């Protein structure tokens, strides 16, 4: 099984949504997420999007990069915000790519749905290309 680490700043919206969606739609890939400065909470609208997509798991929570490093090695790391692309450490032996998404935090629910669809389009396309799935 391939392992992917999704990184952002707060680990409350984009990276959590990406983790849940990848784990639902790619059975041969195990996704993890973390933040460079985790907020300590999952945004309620991000959780709602994942529940509606039938992709929510109660184990999803906002966490530090150090908390997920015990799952290394990762086959791929993906930064989903510009801050994470600058602040997250390089993980030896792990290819890192940057696919930014607009942060829906503080915006209406419809923006979370839009971000979810962008993740399913742009991030999923990159995963299919990278892993040939």
From TrEMBL:
The Gene Ontology biological process annotation of the record reads:
response to arsenic-containing substance
**Entry's Gene Ontology molecular function annotations:** arsenate reductase (glutaredoxin) activity
> Which keywords accompany this UniProt record?
Arsenical resistance, Oxidoreductase
**Family annotation (Gene3D superfamilies):** 3.40.50.2300
InterPro entries, alphabetically?
Answer: Ptyr_pPase, Ptyr_pPase_sf
One Pfam family linked to the record: LMWPc
| Keyword tRNA processing among record annotations | no
What Enzyme Commission number(s) apply to this enzyme? 1.20.4.1
Where are the bilayer-spanning segments?
Answer: none
Quote the protein name from its UniProt record.
Arsenate reductase
Q: What is the native source organism of this protein? A: Nautilia profundicola (strain ATCC BAA-1463 / DSM 18972 / AmH)
């Amino acid at each position: 099984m391939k392992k992917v680490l999704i990184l952002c700043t707060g680990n409350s919206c984009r990276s959590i949504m990406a983790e849940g969606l990848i784990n639902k739609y790619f059975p041969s890939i195990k996704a993890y997420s973390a933040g460079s400065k985790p907020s300590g909470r999952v945004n309620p609208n991000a959780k709602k999007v994942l529940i509606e997509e039938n992709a929510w798991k109660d184990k999803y929570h906002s966490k530090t990069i150090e908390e997920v490093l015990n799952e290394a090695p990762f086959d791929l790391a993906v930064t989903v915000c510009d801050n994470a692309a600058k602040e997250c450490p390089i993980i030896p032996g792990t290819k890192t790519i940057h696919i930014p998404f607009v942060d829906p935090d503080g915006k209406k629910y419809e923006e979370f749905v839009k971000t979810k669809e962008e993740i399913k389009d742009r991030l999923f396309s990159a995963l299919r290309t990278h892993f040939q799935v």
